[in-house]
Design goal:
alpha+beta, 268 residues, five-stranded mixed sheet, D-Maltodextrin-Binding Protein, domain 2, Fructose-1,6-Bisphosphatase, Chain A, domain 1, 2 domains, 27% strand, binds L-MYO-inositol-1-phosphate, seven-stranded mixed sheet
C-alpha cells in the first residue's frame, strides 16, 4: 500500500516539472485555445499541454490509478487512488501575466467525488514565484518558498481588527449579483477582502496564515482538492454550507473558530 508521503513525493516531483513547463510557455507567449462555460472561461494551449504532461507522468508512475482533470476526460481507478488535477489554476491570471497561478495535484482514495473521497496527498506549485505548498494526510503541511524560505504551515485565527477574507466570482455574469449580495453579508466580519483569482492559492494562503479565510461558490473538484488537504493538515477547517463537504455549491476554509462564524454567515 502506497503511503501518503510516497504519494506526496510524486505529486511534488510532477508539480515542479509541470510548473516549469507552464512558466516556460508563459515566457514564450500564451495563446487562448478556446472558451468553455462562458466567454470569460478560457483555456490556453498551455493548460492542455501541462495536463498532458501530468497525465503521462502519472500513467508511467502509477498506471492503475484514476485521473480527474480540468482539461481532459476522467478515467476510473483500478487501484483505489485517483489523481485530481488542475494543470494551471488561475488561468485568467496566467493569460494576463499576473504571477498568481499554480499547478494543483491531489491524490485521493475512494470515490472520485469531493463528497466521498479521502484526500491523501497534495501539492500546489506557483512557478512564477517558486513557491510549493504540500501536505500528506497525517503528516502536516509545509511551504518551500524562494521568497520566505521553508516552514511548516499553521492557520491563524483573525485578530480583533477583523478577518482578511479572500473570495472569488464565477465566469457566468448571471451569478455575480448573488455573489455580491453574499459578500455584503460577509463584510461585517472582514477587515478587508482579497480576490487572488486562483482557488488553490486562496486555500494555501489560509494554510500559510497569509489570509484568514476563504469562501467561494462554483469551484470544481480540481480547484480545491489539493488546497483543502493543505488547509486541514495546517490545522484549519474546510467545508461547504453548514455541515457539508466542499463542493461546487460552496467552499469555505479558515481556522476552526472563525470557520464556524463564517460558515454561519455564508449559510444564512
Ligand atoms: C479558477 C479558480 C478561481 C475562480 C475562477 C476559476 P481556473 O479556476 O481558481 O478561484 O474564481 O472562477 O474557477 O479556471 O483558473 O482553473
Amino acid at each position: 500500500m502506497t503511503t501518503p508521503l510516497e504519494l506526496q513525493s510524486l505529486a511534488i516531483d510532477i508539480a515542479r516539472e509541470a510548473g516549469a513547463l507552464a512558466a516556460r510557455r508563459r515566457r514564450e507567449g500564451v495563446r487562448i485555445a478556446a472558451t468553455k462555460s462562458a466567454l470569460a472561461d478560457i483555456v490556453t494551449d498551455a493548460d492542455r499541454e501541462v495536463e498532458n504532461l501530468i497525465r503521462a507522468r502519472l500513467a508511467t508512475e502509477r498506471p492503475g490509478d484514476g485521473f480527474l482533470g480540468e482539461e481532459s476526460d476522467a478515467s476510473a481507478s483500478g487501484s483505489g487512488i485517483t489523481w485530481v488535477v488542475d494543470p494551471i489554476d488561475g488561468t485568467v491570471n496566467y493569460a494576463y501575466g499576473i504571477p498568481a497561478y499554480a499547478v494543483s495535484i491531489a491524490a485521493v482514495s475512494g470515490p472520485a467525488t469531493p463528497a466521498e473521497w479521502s484526500a491523501l496527498a497534495g501539492a500546489v506549485f506557483n512557478p512564477a514565484v517558486d513557491e510549493l505548498f504540500t501536505a500528506a494526510r497525517g503528516e502536516g503541511a509545509e511551504l518551500r518558498s524562494a521568497i520566505e524560505g521553508d516552514r511548516r504551515l499553521q492557520v491563524a485565527e483573525p485578530s480583533a481588527a477583523g478577518a482578511l477574507i479572500a473570495t472569488g466570482f464565477g465566469y457566468d455574469p448571471a451569478t455575480h449579483a448573488g455573489d455580491l449580495a453574499r459578500l455584503q453579508t460577509v463584510m461585517p466580519l472582514a477587515r478587508d477582502i482579497r480576490r487572488i483569482g486562483a482557488a488553490s492559492l486562496d486555500l494555501t494562503g489560509v494554510a500559510a496564515g497569509r489570509i484568514d479565510a476563504y469562501y467561494e461558490r462554483g469551484l470544481h473538484p480540481w480547484d480545491h482538492a489539493a488546497g483543502a488537504l493543505i488547509v486541514e493538515e495546517s490545522g484549519g477547517r474546510v467545508g461547504g454550507y453548514a455541515g457539508e463537504r466542499p463542493s461546487r455549491t460552496m467552499t469555505i476554509a479558515a481556522a476552526p473558530e472563525f470557520f464556524e462564524r463564517l460558515t454561519d454567515v455564508v449559510s444564512a
